[in-house]
Amino acid sequence: MLLTLAVIGSAHALKGEVRLEIRTDDPEGRLAPGTTVPTEPAQAGPLTVSRLRFDGSRWFAAFEQARDRTAAEALRGVRLLVETDDVSDDATSPTEGDESWYRHELVGLHALNVTGEALGEVTDLEPGVAQDRLVVTTPEGDDVAVPFVAALVPAIDLEAGTVTLDPPGGLFPGRGEAEEAR
Known about the structure:
6-stranded mixed β-sheet, ribosome binding, rRNA processing, RimM_N, Elongation Factor Tu (Ef-tu), domain 3, ribosome biogenesis, 7-stranded antiparallel β-sheet, elongated, SH3 type barrels, 2 domains, chaperone
């Protein structure tokens, strides 16, 4: 199965280096110079890493196929992938328990509140510093970021294709009363 190693961010400097949003616990091993990685979208790659560095807080990489700033900027938003059966990379969890979830398992699930009311569809999983966020697109077309924590995401049923949410009032537009208004 293909999993996301990193997402390419903005170009950095003039010689084709880009900022990376890392999604693996082993960037130095998985993105070592000389490594060729598939991409999403596929038309952007595969890309061969020519340089990888960490500045103490952020990761940067350069690729053989993008030797200047213009070419590097064209790669913004491209996902670097890895073929793996290992569930430790790119997995996240709403609790500290044993359950882990991949982005591709969650995207497309129908979001229901605890009473069974349809809230929308999960369209993304955004990584975060404190916790990840499920992005739910409502039937009206609004995107709502729900913190991916057990209190707000009490159940995920992959077989039924649903995720149960217990959002605070006001999180979803037009549903529930905002906390300040109570």
